Amino acid sequence: FEVPKGIEDHLFRITQEGISNTLRHAEGTKLTIDLFNKADYLLLRIQYAGKGFDVDEKMKKSYGLKNMRERALEIGTTLHIVSLPGAGTRIEVKAPLNKEENDGD
Questions:
Q1: Class of domain 10-97
Q2: From the Swiss-Prot or TrEMBL record, what is one GO molecular function term (predicted)?
Q3: What is the pTM of this model?
Q4: How many CB atoms lie within 10 A of CB 39?
Q5: Is the pLDDT of residue 104 over 60?
């Protein structure tokens, strides 16, 4: 399947930041990245087993998480993070494919 260039670039950078955060902070044992192609959206899911964190607290301080959120907003969606201390983290971005403004221009 073909992904619009603007969406592709932002999803790549979100994934890159997710991997970087996992390697630097999570003390994780397993990292999984999935990209699901649905009829009208793509679902990017980054999950890892690791120490987890308080999402509200980290969103205030983490440049990387703020950047991921901004990239999600640029493609017309939001960043959804679920993290439990001691239980790992799941990050999801549901990118709409039916919006012309998502062409990255």
A1: alpha beta
A2: kinase activity
A3: 0.85
A4: 6
A5: no
